Amino acid sequence: MLNKVVIFGVGLIGGSFARALKKAGAVRSIVGVGRSAASMARALELGIIDAIGVAGEPASLAEALRGADLVLLAAPVAQTEAILAAIAPHLDAGTVVTDAGSTKSDVVAAARRALGGKVAQFVPGHPIAGRETNGPDAAIDHLYIGKKVVITALAENSEADVERVAAAWRACGAIIHRLTPQEHDKVFAAVSHLPHLLAYALVDDIARKPHADLLFQYAASGFRDFTRIAGSSPEMWRDISLANQPALLAELDAYMAQLTQLRAHLAAGDGAALESVYSNAQHARHQWITAIETAEAPASQDKAD
Fold first, then answer.
1. Do residues 184 and 213 touch, judged by C-beta distance below 8 A?
2. Which of 160, 174, 248, 298 has the fewest CB within 10 Å, making it most exposed?
3. Residue 287's CB: how many other CB atoms inside 10 A?
4. How confident is the model over 248-290, as pLDDT tens digits?
């Protein structure tokens, strides 16, 4: 049981964390802190949080953090260093801080700069879950059931502090994995950050065509499914793209090389080569979907309930 949790950013990610902890009976009190007074008021109204802390007021921050067991940063990654610097003077020795950022190397560097000698209290994390909706109204209590949470622990972290973070996520229904920050950023550049970039690029390309209205009129489920993630927060994904720039550029270059090869097959009318690529992709996707459905079976049951 966590006595007090403080969440910076009570939208889909932070709000769902709060809702899940409350549903599990794993927390007594949750304080929300955010840039928007309206969003914080809405989170309070919805019962996601029990109190509001004001980000720009040191006295309010000090009160919010006093006696906190766990602090979650669920704001865009570009805000990480500023938030950590603001809370550093008010952190109790027993408070553990974690984050939900989609990049880790930059977050770790920011934590070392902002927290100095208190960096051992920061346990980096990344929940692999989400939807394209934002804000407190998007928060749901079953978002993390059956989903992975990657913890990229620092050498300075105590195992007890890492376990506090892991236990909180497990209370939300998540499955804990561990990677180094560097491994994390390479993996997610390929399977998360690049797909978002591609989805945004495709929708932007079509939207800028002179006959965009006609094209969108005939776009159906395939286009909808492929571009769903382009409905995500542009601010958040701008920050993620820039934060993981080296790894994302490497994956983008590899993808462009693949497209160049596919274009050559198409231009040459080489149906066998095209079918070979399509078949390999189909087989790999079927295997992945089967594994995902097996791992996330509890989530499906929860939604059915």
1. no
2. 160
3. 10
4. 999 999 999 999 999 999 999 999 999 999 999 999 999 999 9
